[in-house]
Design goal:
With 457 residues, this protein is mainly α. The chain has one domain. Helix 11 runs antiparallel to helix 12, helix 11 packs parallel to helix 13 and helix 12 packs antiparallel against helix 13. It starts with 9 loop residues before the first helix and ends in an 8-residue tail after the last helix.
Length: 457
């Protein structure tokens, strides 16, 4: 790949990444707020509902991201096509991304339907497993809309149309909050459905977001030229195969990490509902701050992908450094928040009149301290993955992630949490160890490839 003298100042790289990334960060934060509002409101309903909701959210997310690999891979592929000025490939990629996301969602729904026996076999308390299954058998109908939303989001992001994604997701949060208020507690004459009400609220919120983004992609300002839904039913075998080839490793990479988190939730559930509730709270908070890094990482995928399409290696590297700088600032701010306001944050999720609340609060504050360290390495590994997706390198990252998460992370969680008797804190330290290894391996791979990458090879 040729390496022309860079023409863009580094501060311009930072600014472009910020302009592209801020709406993505905002939309991801808004998206995670759907789960956060579920957790907050279920915590006000009962401790049992909170524990089941935390477990249900973790399991649903694991299934979702396994199926979302095709949608995520479409972002890097489309950004590369934009860099090459190939408009036809941009829309072909989005269309086949929708096909693959629909198929993956339908294939994954039975896993959610059968969640109760799976959770019981994993050692969960019968009441928690039953409540979680009640949620899943409804929430599974949110899976396809969520995946279609992810594909449309990738398409619009590659075209740098991220503001509409932000506003659509914020609207979904407001809708979800209102539906939770009605359906969890039975307010305003609505039926009191408890955890099932939270599931129905999620289904309706995800569906509404998919509809809004589809309408914008078809008829938004300047979008008609892409003719996204014209001949949508026609198979494009070349792009379908290529996107499948890129996407399934992304899905397995994501699920390797998510399954590590799901495994820790199962470990917490085996200890008891109190530790599981504390873990769920801290994990929801960590997921919210992680969205900042994920949004910047996705912006980096677009920026790196465009320079890869232009075959401009030097600017590709500078775009990556700019994204790392922004992520580093976010890491420092989140660490300060975790250490300085951890008790207040955890308490916000609890009804302190509940007899179990003080113990959950105490454990949650301890886990927040570990989560401060966790943020640093989690940010580094997601940034590296974003860079690698920009140059459409997905197979080796999958292998390196699996080694890190399952060969190192899960054994470390078991060893520290149970063998050494450190309990929930030890489990979280195991997560830190696994993510540290992942960040080192993935970042090393990107910087080895960055000077010689040819993403069409």
């Amino acid at each position: 790949m040729d390496s022309p003298v860079p023409q863009m100042p580094f501060r311009r790289h930072v600014w472009r990444t910020l302009v592209l990334g801020l709406p993505l960060v905002g939309s991801l934060l808004a998206q995670i707020l759907i789960g956060l509002t579920d957790t907050l409101m279920l915590g006000r309903y009962s401790v049992e509902a909170l524990a089941a909701g935390a477990l249900a959210t973790t399991v649903f997310h694991a299934v979702f991201i396994l199926a979302a690999g095709f949608a995520i891979a479409a972002m890097g592929a489309a950004a590369d096509a934009v860099g090459r000025g190939d408009e036809r490939t941009v829309r072909r990629t989005a269309r086949m991304g929708l096909w693959l996301s629909l198929g993956a969602g339908l294939a994954a729904m039975p896993v959610l339907w059968l969640s109760e026996p799976i959770l019981l076999a994993a050692g969960q308390v019968p009441r928690t497993a039953a409540d979680t299954a009640d949620y899943m058998r409804i929430a599974m109908f949110a899976l396809v809309p969520a995946l279609l939303t992810a594909t449309l989001r990738s398409h619009l992001s590659a075209l740098e149309r991220t503001r509409v994604v932000l506003w659509a997701t914020i609207a979904a949060v407001v809708l979800n909050f209102g539906l939770n208020w009605l359906l969890i507690f039975g307010n305003a004459g609505a039926p009191e459905l408890g955890i099932r009400g939270a599931a129905w609220a999620s289904v309706m919120s995800h569906s509404a977001t998919a509809i809004v983004l589809a309408l914008y992609a078809a008829r938004g300002p300047g979008m008609a030229r892409w003719e996204l839904f014209r001949n949508l039913w026609r198979m494009d075998r070349e792009i379908l195969v290529r996107l499948f080839h890129l996407g399934w490793p992304v899905g397995l990479t994501l699920v390797s990490e998510s399954a590590m988190f799901t495994g820790t939730a199962l470990m917490m559930g085996a200890i008891g509902s109190g530790p599981l509730a504390a873990h769920g709270i801290v994990m929801q908070v960590a997921a919210a701050t992680f969205m900042v890094h994920l949004g910047v990482s996705q912006a980096a995928t677009v920026r790196v992908g465009r320079f890869a399409g232009e075959e401009n290696t030097i600017e590709l590297q500078r775009a990556a450094w700019a994204a790392l700088a922004l992520s580093g600032v976010a890491v420092m701010l989140s660490i300060l928040a975790y250490l300085g306001a951890g008790r207040w944050i955890v308490a916000a999720f609890l009804d302190m009149n509940d007899a179990d609340a003080p113990a959950i609060l105490s454990l949650g504050v301890a886990l927040m301290g570990v989560a401060a360290l966790f943020q640093l390495v989690d940010a580094a590994q997601v940034m590296a993955l974003g860079f690698l997706r920009g140059v459409q390198d997905t197979h080796w990252p999958m292998v390196l992630a699996a080694i890190s998460y399952w060969g190192v992370g899960i054994p470390a969680c078991l060893l520290l949490g149970f063998t050494f008797g450190m309990g929930p804190v030890g489990i979280w330290l195991g997560l830190v160890i696994g993510l540290t290894v992942a960040s080192a391996l993935l970042m090393a791979r990107f910087y080895r490839l960055a000077s010689v990458v040819d993403n069409r090879g």
